Amino acid sequence: MIKKVLIFGFVATLMFSSCGGGDNSGENTNNVKSVDEETLGLIKSDVQSDNENLLGAMPQYSTKAPGTAEKIERSFENAPPMIPHMTDGFFPITKDNNICLTCHMPDKVASTGAVAIPPTHFTDYRPKVVKVGDKYSVDAEEGEVVSTKLSNLSAARFNCSQCHVPQANVTVDIKNTFDRVFRNEASKTGSNLNDNIKEGVEK
Ligand code: HEC
Ligand code: HEC
Fold first, then answer.
1. Predicted confidence band of residue 21 (pLDDT cuts 50, 70, 90)
2. What spacing in Å lies between the alpha carbon of 33 and ligand 1's midpoint?
3. Each residue's pLDDT tens digit, 39-82
4. Which one of the ligands is nearest to 118 CA?
5. Which atom of ligand 1 lies closest to the CA of 67?
6. Whose CA is nearest to atom 12 of ligand 2?
7. Cα torsion for 9, 13, 19, 24, to the nearest 10°?
8. How deeply is 144 buried, as exposed, middle or buried, from its count of CB atoms within 10 A (0-12, 13-18, 19+)?
9. What is the CA radius of gyration of the chain?
10. Contact at 8 Å (CB) between 111 and 102?
């Protein structure tokens, strides 16, 4: 018991002394440098001033019309590709208005030059729910990948911007240390998820 109290006392002292850096007196008991309010954010300007034109420094989205933009490399193999072209007026996507479909549906791409919506988006991966006795359960084995081909676009894929997003020219002072690994050149700009969706899951 005494041991516990001692340890608690030690931890509490540590906590109080590290909080000391944040008090307004500017005095630092253990020489830890405190962080100024002004230097907390990534935008290096006075957040309390109305005078600076922060809008002028806002990131710009692509202004390239569809058909003139270049594909962006995938973030990882079979990641949802990012939208390389401008999207002004394309959002919001609503039940009655989804302009993405007018160019990206597989039967439209011959005339629009867009990348066809892949087969995965015309597949339902959700197992059926069945009633067994008075309980509900899913109609699938453990580890089984259920995939039902649909004749239409899956409703789960209708809201394109849930997964595909436009990109802006932002430079952020945080280094990205994620290491992308592709098994072949083609998967940097294309996907093959439909062929290998069971990989590593089903025996
Ligand atoms: C006017 C036709 C058109 C419309 C509308 C359109 N796109 Fe595109 N999209 C293209 C073309 C063409 C490309 C190929 C890049 C290029 O040439 O600009 C493309 C490329 C893409 C890519 C990159 C594909 C890849 O493999 O890297 C994505 C993702 C995409 N579009 C998503 C969308 C989404 C989401 C919408 C709706 C918000 C949309 N597009 C609306 C024509 C269109
Ligand atoms: C739930 C997330 C999700 C939604 C919603 C979604 N996608 Fe995708 N999309 C993906 C992923 C993940 C991939 C890459 C793997 C694959 O091919 O399925 C992809 C790939 C693509 C590709 C590249 C195909 C290729 O051959 O390289 C296009 C084009 C595309 N989607 C268009 C769309 C459009 C248009 C919509 C809306 C109608 C949409 N997607 C909705 C996740 C999504």
1. very low
2. 49
3. 777 666 666 776 666 656 678 899 999 999 999 999 999 999 99
4. 2
5. 17
6. 80
7. 120
8. middle
9. 27
10. no
